[in-house]
Recover the amino acids of this structure.
C-alpha cells in the first residue's frame, strides 16, 4: 500500500510540475467523484443549487451541439492521450471562455440549459486533468451567475473528487465529505465558510482514528498572497495551483485557508 501511495503521489506531483511548464501537452490524473450520499452541501452553497425538478426545453442550438462534441472528446481522452485532440479541445475551450457573450441571456434561447452543458464540460476536464482553470470557471458559474446553474448532482460530483486516499477539494463552499479510507475507517472533512462573502475557509477533520491522507486544496488564479496553515505549520500555496496537505489526519485537526491577504 505504501508503494502504491508513493507511486500515485509521485505521479500527481510530476503532473502539477508538468502543467506549469507544458500547457500545450495533455495532462491526466482522472480523479473520481464520490458517491452522492458521501457529500453534504450546507449554508449558502445549498441555496446555489438548480432544482433538478425544474423542466427545461433542451433545444439543439449550435452552441449546445458544440458543447456536446467537446464533452464527447473529453470522454475519449479518458482512454487515449492524443495531443492533437487535446490542443483542439483547449483551443475551442479558450474561445468559449474568452467570449462570455456566448453565454448571455441575450444570445441564448435557453441559457440555463447551455450553461449546464458548459458546467458538465468543465467538470469532466477538471476531473480528467486537475487543472485549476477549470475549477475557476466552475466557481464563476456557481457564484457569479445571477441564478443557480449547477444541479445538486453536478455539484456533488465535483466539489470533492479522489484517487484512492488522495482527495481534491475543487470548490470552496460550506459542505462536508465522508471518506472511507482504503485501510478502513471513515474520515469526515468539513468546510466551514461563508465564501464568497469572505475569502477564507476552515477545513476541519473528524475521525475515530489516525489516517494518512493527501488533500489537495484548489487555490484560485485570482487569489492574492494565499495562505494555508495548521497552527504554526504553513503549507505552500500559490494562485492557480493546488495546495498539497500530506499528513496523518487526526480528530480535531483544523486548517485555515485564506485566499486574499
Amino acid at each position: 500500500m505504501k508503494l502504491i501511495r508513493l507511486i500515485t503521489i509521485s505521479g500527481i506531483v510530476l503532473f502539477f510540475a508538468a502543467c506549469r511548464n507544458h500547457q500545450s501537452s495533455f495532462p491526466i490524473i482522472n480523479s473520481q467523484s464520490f458517491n452522492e450520499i458521501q457529500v453534504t452541501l450546507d449554508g449558502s452553497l445549498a441555496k446555489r443549487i438548480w432544482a433538478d425538478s425544474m423542466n427545461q426545453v433542451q433545444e439543439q442550438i449550435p452552441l449546445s451541439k458544440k458543447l456536446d462534441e467537446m464533452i464527447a472528446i473529453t470522454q475519449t481522452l479518458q482512454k487515449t492521450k492524443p495531443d492533437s485532440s487535446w490542443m483542439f479541445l483547449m483551443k475551442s475551450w479558450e474561445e468559449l471562455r474568452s467570449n462570455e457573450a456566448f453565454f448571455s441571456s441575450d444570445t441564448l434561447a435557453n441559457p440555463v440549459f447551455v450553461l449546464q452543458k458548459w458546467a458538465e464540460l468543465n467538470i469532466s476536464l477538471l476531473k480528467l486533468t486537475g487543472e485549476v482553470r477549470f475549477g475557476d470557471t466552475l466557481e464563476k458559474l456557481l457564484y457569479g451567475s445571477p441564478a443557480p446553474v449547477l444541479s445538486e448532482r453536478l455539484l456533488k460530483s465535483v466539489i470533492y473528487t479522489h484517487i484512492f486516499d488522495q482527495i481534491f477539494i475543487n470548490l470552496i463552499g460550506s459542505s462536508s465529505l465522508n471518506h472511507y479510507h482504503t485501510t478502513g475507517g471513515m474520515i469526515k472533512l468539513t468546510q466551514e465558510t461563508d465564501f464568497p462573502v469572505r475569502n477564507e475557509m476552515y477545513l476541519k477533520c473528524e475521525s475515530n482514528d489516525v489516517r494518512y491522507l493527501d488533500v489537495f486544496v484548489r487555490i484560485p488564479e485570482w487569489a492574492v498572497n494565499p495562505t494555508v496553515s495548521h497552527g504554526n505549520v504553513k503549507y505552500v500555496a500559490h494562485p492557480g495551483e493546488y495546495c498539497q496537505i500530506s499528513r496523518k489526519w487526526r480528530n480535531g485537526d483544523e486548517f485555515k485557508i485564506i485566499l486574499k491577504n
Observations:
- The chain has two domains: 28-44+160-258, 48-156.
- DSSP finds seven helices and twelve strands in the chain.
- Residues 166 and 214 are 5 Å apart (CA to CA).
- The chain has a mean pLDDT of 86.
